[in-house]
């Protein structure tokens, strides 16, 4: 599923996006959690994984970095601060946010065919 | 090749910097993405443990001539009172602050063991010593 379509379905906004080509990238898996160690247990290839979380802090970026995950979506309109934006820029991680709750966002993504 | 980094107790702001550096070093050395991920995840969990649980310590990356990677995480205390419990998935003694940062899932040591080819841990009041080896 292309990120552009996922973004539209989640009514998400791009908060930090270095390269708009990321919107054309395909994603197959979603990991949704506020617990970083649960995310770190993942075995999928990071480039096809979306990281969905309600925790907007530097550690979510570091976790994505370690797993080579290129996109983080923050639910409930969580906003990254300036330090996080700078770090995301350096790491080449794109950030989106949606006003939807974690439950709603997960339901939509599952309905679109994305899987754990 | 061996590089050691110091990690300070409660240094939440820096959490992940050492692991980011270790990841970059392994990439420059030409290791594959899957191997780098295994080491990076283990390194990051170790770094977080040093920050949230220990009184401070070091994280060392060593790569031998055959390309076998070793991570050594050594701290100066206070030690893990019950190692069997600490190795149990979901068991956590993390503080409220650590949990606010997204840690304290009780999966740190479990992940480190899972990602490594060999995992050794020893702990006493004088410190915890973890050695992880990574190969194909």
Fold and architecture overview:
The complex is a heterodimer of chains A (116) and B (136). Chain A is an alpha/beta fold and 116 residues long. Chain A contains 5 helices and 5 strands; from the N terminus they run αββαβαβαβα. In chain A, strands 1-5-4-3-2 form a 5-stranded mixed beta sheet, sandwiched between helices. In chain A, β4, α4 and β5 form a beta-alpha-beta unit. The radius of gyration of chain A is 12 Å and the shape is globular. The two termini of chain A are 14 Å apart. The model of chain A has no long low-confidence stretch (mean pLDDT 94). Chain B contains 5 helices and 5 strands. Chain B has a 5-stranded antiparallel beta sheet with strand order 1-2-3-5-4, covered by helices on one side. In chain B, a hairpin with a 5-residue loop joins β2 and β3. Chain A: It comes from Candidatus Fimiplasma intestinipullorum.
Helical stretch count of chain A?
A: 5
State which percent range the strand residues of chain A make up.
15-25%
For the record, the CATH class of chain A is Alpha Beta
Architecture per CATH nomenclature, i.e. the level-2 architecture of chain A: 3-Layer(aba) Sandwich
- Give the terminus-to-terminus CA distance of chain A: 14 Å
| Average pLDDT metric of chain A | 94
Mean pLDDT of chain B: 96
Tell me the radius of gyration of chain A: 12 Å
How many strands, which pairing sense, and closed or not: the largest β-sheet of chain A? 5 strands, mixed
Sum up the overall morphology of chain B in one term: globular
Q: Which assembly state applies to the chains in this document?
A: heterodimer
């Amino acid at each position: 599923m292309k990120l552009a379509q996922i973004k539209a379905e989640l009514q998400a906004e791009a908060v930090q996006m270095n390269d708009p080509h990321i919107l054309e990238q395909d994603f197959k898996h979603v990991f949704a959690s506020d617990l970083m160690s649960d995310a770190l247990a993942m075995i999928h290839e990071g480039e096809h994984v979306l990281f969905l979380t309600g925790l907007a802090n530097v550690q979510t970026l570091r976790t994505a970095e370690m797993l080579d995950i290129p996109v983080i979506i923050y639910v409930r309109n969580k906003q990254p601060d300036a330090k996080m934006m700078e770090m995301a820029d350096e790491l080449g991680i794109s950030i989106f946010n949606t006003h939807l709750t974690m439950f709603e966002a997960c339901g939509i993504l599952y309905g679109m065919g994305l899987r754990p | 090749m061996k590089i050691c980094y110091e990690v300070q107790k409660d240094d939440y702001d820096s959490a992940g910097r050492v692991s980011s550096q270790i990841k970059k070093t392994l990439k420059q050395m030409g290791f594959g993405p899957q191997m780098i991920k295994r080491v990076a995840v283990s390194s990051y969990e170790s770094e977080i443990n040093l920050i949230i649980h220990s009184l401070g310590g070091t994280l060392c990356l060593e790569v031998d001539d055959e390309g076998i990677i070793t991570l050594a995480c050594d701290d100066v205390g206070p030690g893990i009172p019950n190692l069997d419990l600490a190795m149990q998935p979901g068991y956590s003694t993390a503080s409220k602050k650590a949990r606010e940062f997204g840690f304290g899932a009780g999966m740190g040591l479990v992940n480190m063991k899972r990602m490594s080819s060999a995992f050794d841990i020893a702990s006493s009041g004088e410190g915890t010593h973890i050695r992880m080896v990574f190969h194909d």
